[in-house]
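To: structure desk
From: M.T.
Subject: fold request, one chain
Message: Could you run this one when you get a chance? Sequence is below, nothing fancy, just the single chain.
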Amino acid sequence: QVQLVESGGGMVQAGGSLRLSCAASGRTFSNYKMGWFRQAPGGEREFVARIIWNSGNTMYADSVKGRFTISRDSGKYTVYLQMDSLKPEDTAVYYCAAGPWVSDYHYWGQGTQVTVSS
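Reply: Done. Structure tokens follow.
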């Protein structure tokens, strides 16, 4: 059974940094994509970034490009989201997700809260 467990959320001032982690287990993730999504209060879940497990190819939402970096440690089956230059509008619950790279995301974590104060 696939499990995705996020950690690393918290409260930070604007301009600060946080690093989120997503520990993945339950299968091999070859040919999978791993993504980060977020949902602000009253808002819809939105795409943040994704990485293709095998190739390391990355993609970002325009709103975080240049500030966030997604990476993975294949040996630890862990995906990271380094968030720098945080803004109050980055406040949201952040979710890790996984799925076949040619299909939808099938698996989701429970989410971790990120709060950025001005």
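Reply (cont.): The chain has a mean pLDDT of 96. Let me know if you need anything else for the meeting.
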